[in-house]
Amino acid sequence: MKTIFKTIIAIITTFTLCIGYTYAATASELNASKNELNQKKEQAQDELEDIQSEKTSTTDEIDQINDSINDLNDKIDDLQNQIDDLNDKISENEKEIEEKEGEITQKQDLLKTRLVAMYKSGGNSYLSVLLGSSSALDMIITYDAVEDIAKADTNLIDTIKEEKVNLENKKKELESNKTEVASKKTELDSEQASLNAKKIEKQEKVSKLSAEEQKTQQEIDSYNEQIRKVNNQLSAIAKAAAKNTNKSKNNSAKVYTGGQFTWPCPSYTRISNYFGYRSAAETNGIGSTNHKGIDMAAPYGSDILAAESGVVILASYASGYGNCVMINHGGGVVTLYGHASSLCCSVGQTVSRGQVIAKVGSTGNSTGNHLHFSVLINGTYVNPASYLGM
What we know:
Number of strands: 13
Radius of gyration: 51 Å
Shape: rod-shaped
């Protein structure tokens, strides 16, 4: 900065150069601030993208956990239905066992009663029948008949006991099945509890990420507002510089009084982006949706020409515009040439219409080699089309 002052003091010859330097110094400071704000904004945007990506990933994980929980719920419900069915079967089995036990007791009591009655009753008693037989053959026959009755009762009791044993074995099998199913259900219940805990953890993470997302977005909004203010200051400075240059008697540049500009990018004539609104998709998330000029795509290093004679009031890196040149043509008219790969002029220099002032590039917020060309009238961006005979 001290070297610039010494040089200016040594070569100062006109008031216009003083005005040009004052503008450049102020614009340089503002652009430095703007660059810093844009860097912070870009960092915040990168952080926001990371947060949003992580939030989306975590939300997807929650959806997967919910799917797993729903699947487990179906399996647990199925196992519970199996347990309920087994419980019903066990209850029914226990009831049948109880009935068999009752039958056995009833049959045993009947057999005892029958034998006691036969023993106690007079001539019809078992012993009396045996002792009172008229012959050995009668006694054998009578004995066999009584024995058959006792044997039939005993066989019936044995059959009922066997049925009871079968029922008890079936009960054991049902209880074993129930234990196995209950064990599976316990495992699934534990897995479900683990998934629910994991889901809560992920939901808390999403809430935290949402808070970070909101905070980061607020930071970006703040940077955008600060950048907007800096842009307004730059426009005001350009407007003031144009006004002061017009007033300068020593201004050797041609004062613009109307007429068509020369095409600033002779190597290419097709417009790739027009002035005014454009969708966010068209900007690839880099440029503004309110396009303040027109874009002319051209090969890297192609010539950029001064659209009209004037005084260079900015020749430096200018944040989103990258390497940028601004020329004051007088009459409140200023042209801007952005995204250059290199600059071929300096602040305060008087340039002629069609003179090479820079080379095409892709510096600043740019997705490819092109010239961004803007026209400002008294510090306000206007559509350059009419000035180029479009």
